[in-house]
Design brief:
mainly alpha, Four Helix Bundle (Hemerythrin (Met), subunit A), 4 helices
Length: 137
């Protein structure tokens, strides 16, 4: 299971709150599958994760553009790829149900997105945003 790591804090409170919730929801998918909860619960949780991820990406992209982040388009493309991957995981669930493959897919998605993406890509964005704020932009 996944636990929020405070070292992933960006210093942008709205984004940090969303990241923490995304961790909890991704963890809830894994817990639902591991506990053998019904397909409806797993489906509901996966759908929330997909919907909330889209909202989160919109939020990050709004902050990037407002701060004039020079890599905003490239970062937005990464978000689009992550969104596609979330949809693939959801489609896999719909096709195969709560399988060991689904657990592996969710774990890989969470590890790659919520950990690596936040630690590397979002850190660059938040550094830019925080610097822009400090300079009054």
């Amino acid at each position: 299971m996944f636990t929020w790591d405070p070292r992933l804090e960006t210093g942008v409170s709205e984004i940090d709150e969303q990241h923490r919730l995304l961790f909890r929801k991704a963890d809830a998918v894994l817990e639902a599958v591991a506990a053998g909860q019904g397909a409806a619960e797993v489906k509901r949780t996966l759908q929330f994760l997909a919907d909330y991820a889209a909202l989160h990406f919109e939020t990050e992209e709004r902050y990037m553009r407002a701060a004039g982040f020079p890599e905003a388009d490239a970062h937005a493309e990464i978000h689009a790829r992550i969104n596609r991957r979330i949809m693939e995981v959801a489609a896999s669930f719909h096709a195969q149900g709560a399988s060991p493959e689904l657990v592996a897919d969710v774990e890989a998605l969470v590890r790659g997105w919520l950990t690596m993406h936040i630690a590397e890509k979002d850190r660059a964005v938040s550094d830019w945003i925080n610097q822009a704020r400090a300079q009054g932009r």
